[in-house]
Structure of Globin:
Amino acid sequence: MHELETDSSHDAPFDRLGGEEGVVRLVDRFYELMDTLPEAATIRAMHARNLKVSRFRLTRFLISWLGGPPIYQEIRGHEHPRLDPYHHPFRIDEDARDAWMLCMRQALVEHVDDVTLREHLADALDGIADHLRNVP
């Protein structure tokens, strides 16, 4: 996935979210929601009992994707990070995609005050989530 496109006249979304601390808060809330919302049970079941590794990976991906330091590439390689191979073992259908986005949209609502930025991020993440579907 390519880094999130931004308007050069504005700070990167990474900076607008509060840097690494802001991304960590967003990811933490995302996984709290995944752990507690009944509607997220299908995607929660796709994850390990302990979410430490998932939190680490999503945080690193988002930091890089949002225009922060390229730490995801340092972990996964310098070519464009590809999420598909890591998700192929899982049955990701429309319901799973929607459950993931339900948690992410709620986390964005709670942690991104800038409505325009929030909507931009939600739309971009929705595109990524849809791309990762591997079941019609």
Q: What stands out?
A: The chain has eight helices and no strands.
